[in-house]
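Researcher: Next sequence.
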Amino acid sequence: MKIKLVFLLYISFCSLTIGQNNDLQVISSAAKSDKADNLSLEWTLGEMVVDFLDVSAFSISQGFHQSSYQIVVVKSIPEESGVITVFPNPFSDELIVNMTFADIENGDIELLDIKGTSLWKKSFEGREVVDKFAASALPSGSYLVLVSFDHGASIQSYQLLKTQ
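Model: Next structure:
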C-alpha cells in the first residue's frame, strides 16, 4: 500500500513538472483567421523552417502553425529613398542583392547565420548596386542579410532560407 501511494505521488509530481511551453510564435509573411457559426479557418504563409534534416537520399523540413500568432515588422527604408531586393528566397547556389537609390548611398551588405556570425560583408557606394554571393558551400538553414547605411539612418534586414 505504501509503495502504491509513493508511486501515485511520484506520477502526480511528474505530471505537474513536465509540460510543453505554450508560448510558441510564428513568423510569417501573411496570416489570417476567419470564423463562421461552427467553422474556424486559420492559415499562415511563408513560415520559417524550425528544423532541417538533409541526408543524401532525402531532405525533411519541419514548420509549425499556431492559432495564436504575432506579426513581426522588419525595418525598411522609405520607398522614396530607394528599393532593396534580395533574391531568390529560398536560395541554393547564389544570393543576389539588388539596390536602387534616389541619391548616392554608402553602406555595407552583410550575411549572417542564424547564430549572428558574420559570413560575408561588403561595402557599397552608388545609386544602383548589384552584389552576388556564391552560396553553394553554405549548409542548409536560415540566414539574415543586413543592409546598413554609413549615415546610420536605416538598416534593412531580410531573413532567407538556404536549401541544397
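Model: Residues 2-17 form the longest helix (16 residues). The beta strands are 30-35, 40-45, 51-54, 59-62, 82-87, 94-113, 118-134, 141-149, 155-162.
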